[in-house]
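Take a specimen:
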Amino acid sequence: MKRIILAALAGMLASGTSPAFAKPNWIGQPSVNFPAYVKSFVFPSGRQINQSSSLCWGNWCVSFGAEAPVAYYFPAERSGLRTLNIHKLKCKNPVAGTKQCTFNFVERPAQGQLRCWLQIKATNLTTRIDCPIVHFQ
């Protein structure tokens, strides 16, 4: 049985699909609730980004800026994509300094996919991240 499960997971990874994921808490929100302030992000590891804690990917550390981050939700209509963009995050690098950055979360319900990225503005750097739970104010 263990071999069957491992083989199934290996097949999903090789085909580029991901195993089933919990429905993100922003899916299904009425679009009239946005834009909305973000209170915190909780990642699958249990680590958080909020007003008092940051999280790093490589040499880039993401934190809240002077203002709370703002979420913009674009529900699926014709495209079949649901998108949540989070602005007003601060990314700090020891060489490049502090830059504005965003989180971009895209769900493709038909394919059962959820993809999340960190995008650092003014650098054209984008990196995949684990998708967090987003807590709104």
Residues 80 and 108 are 6 Å apart (CA to CA).
